[in-house]
Amino acid sequence: MGRAGLRVVTGAILLFIYFPLVLVIVYAFNRNIVASWPIPGLTLQWWARAIANPGVRDALLTSIVAGIGATVVALLLGSLAALAVDRFRFFGREAISFVVILPIALPGIVTGIAINSAVGAFGIGFGLATVIVGHATFCVVLVYNNVLARFRRSSRSIEEASADLGADTWQTFRHVTFPVVRSALLAGALLAFALSFDEIIVTTFTRGDVKTLPIWIFENYRLANQAPIVNVVAVIAITLSVIPVYLASRLTSDAAGVTR
Amino acid sequence: MSARTAILRDSFLRRLAVALYRRPGAALALLLALPLAWLLVAYLGSLAILFANALFRIDPFTARVIPEPGLQNFERLISNDVYRTITLRTLGIATAVTVTTAVLAFPVAYFMARVASNRTRGLMVVAVLMPLWASYLVKVYAWRIILAQDGILNWALAPLGIRGPGFGDVATWLVFSYLWLPYMILPIYAGLQRIPQSLLEASSDLGARPGSTFRRVILPLVLPAVVAGSIFTFSLTMGDYIAPQLVSSTQFIGNVIFANVGSSGDLPFAAAFATVPVLVMVVYLLVARRLGAFEAL
Fold first, then answer.
1. Minimal CA separation from B152 to chain A, in Å
2. How far is A84 from chain B (nearest CA, A)?
3. pLDDT over 50 (residue B201)
4. CB contact (8 A) between residue A10 and residue B107
5. Which end of chain A is more exposed for a tag (fewer CB within 10 A), N or C?
């Protein structure tokens, strides 16, 4: 394959990747209520309807709260674990990375029913709290990986220098260690939020009657009269999960580390 | 806060810091307590409970789980044709998706790693990364619209006198290949980037044509990266149940598991069926590690 051929094939595959996303955006402005092609014209009325729809508003709010909750927990657990693995040598250290990655490596349905049956066994009610617990479990790895990678790239000698210059542990942490990992923490947090915002499988098993945005889409995509609003919600969902990832990829130099 | 309490607080924190410095074990315990309590006890604990369930059975009258270990769920899985067909379909489509994504990913990754300018490369990495994160459900839903009876695919194919695949196993294969393609592009791109240019020059200096350089130098070196990507494409396909539900009427392992969780279901049987993808993945990961895929992740 020559260079020109390679260019054409690459372009075609990128087109293939973006075409469905663009199509959903076009359908969100479709004047026709049915998602058939070609579309007769464009309108903004579905956006007004979607914004006025209390179900959509509640689901969006729930998704944002769940995403923030899961992110906070993941930040705490992920950075603690990364600090421990980077600074100490201990029995089972290698296993930590494995345990952290497991919730995302196993099929979502396995993590989902595991948490479901455990929560059920202890008689805790399902709701927003259990959704946050479920999401946080698979979001930890994003913070952990980002922070650990940053620790490994940064030199310990600046912390030693800080101590030599008379700073105590807390001052060193506040003025040296934390600034080093700050952007890695932020990148991890943005990715955790994006992943949580997008999640449907673990949510299904932990939600009780709570509705996140993906759950709302899933419940409404078959309903003929809701179809145009679903397209609008889909565009909102794409936007709110892609923007954090874009920001995160700008914060970390190694974009490949942003893969799930 | 008065100056006195500030001094007291400072001296307490300072003494705490010194104490932790002297006893690294205590510092480590403080750091690890929360993450381990969450992941080891809560998460691995619930996984253990789940898979213990696989050995139990359900009382047909009370619908309660009877905790007497036995292999009846696994016998049912093996002896029943329906479950065998579903397992084979799931594994078959997961394999097909893996091969398809590898073939599609290669030219894109090669272009990014070896042809594109630095600027284009940076843009392309972001361009591949973004759709990977764009709402999973929305992407499946988009394909539902594309493949629908009066959708854009049939409209585009109509002048040629042919029709799209409609909903079914082909649609499932197509949608999964679409969904996981970026997961394959990124590791292959990273793998190709690691091959030193001098190696390719050496190959051509020694008289190899581009074709044989590709086959005998590039492919073997990039294989671990392909295997690394395949971990995602294979396991994500195998564990999914939403996409088959949206674009097909046939069942995946996940659909059976899903149907059996809940008040009217059979959790022990669901747990037993869930061991299949988990075991397949464990074997897959062991083989992948031997092929050096973990270094290419």
1. 5
2. 6
3. yes
4. yes
5. N
Number of Cβ atoms within 10 Å of the Cβ of A158: 13
Confidence of residue A95 (pLDDT cuts 50, 70, 90): confident
Contacts of B19 in chain A (CB under 8 A): none
Sign of CA dihedral A160, A163, A169, A174: negative
CB A119 within 8 A of CB A206: yes
pLDDT at A255 over 70: no
C-alpha–C-alpha distance, residues A13 and B184, integer Å: 13
pLDDT band of residue A260 (cuts 50, 70, 90) is very low
- Residue partners of B297: CB distance under 8 A and separation at least 6: B187, B228, B231
What is the residue whose two structure tokens read 């619930």? B46
Q: How large is the average pLDDT for residues B279-295?
A: 84
Cα A20 to Cα B174: distance, rounded to the nearest angstrom: 12
Q: What is the pLDDT of residue A117?
A: 81
Give me A49's structure tokens. Answer: 């309807």
Token pair for A17 = 């990747």
Inter-chain residue contact B137 with A116, CB threshold 8 Å: no
How far is residue B241's CA from residue B216's CA, in Å, rounded to a whole number? Answer: 39
Give the position of tokens 């046939």: B250
In this complex, the residue of B129, B145, B278 whose CB is nearest that of residue A249 is: B129
- Beta bridge pairs of residue B65: B58
What was the pLDDT predicted at B2? 64
Contact (CB<8Å) B134/A242: yes
Mean pLDDT lowest for which of A11-15, B14-18, B44-48, B60-64?
B60-64
Cβ pair B50:A10 closer than 8 A: no
Listed in sequence order, the residues at least 6 apart from A128 whose beta carbon sits closer than 8 Å to its beta carbon are A62, A65, A66, A69, A210
Which alpha helices (DSSP H) does A28-127 contain, by range?
45-52, 54-87, 93-105, 108-121
The pair of three-digit structure tokens given for residue B280, joined into one six-digit string: 């397949």
Mean pLDDT score, B20-48: 85
Taking only the tens place, the pLDDT of each residue in A122-134 is 778 889 999 999 9
Q: Using CB atoms, pick whichever of B50, B190, B254 lies closest to residue A256.
A: B190
Contact call for A246 and B38, based on CB within 8 A? no
State the pTM of this model: 0.85
Average pLDDT of the segment spanning A33-60? 86
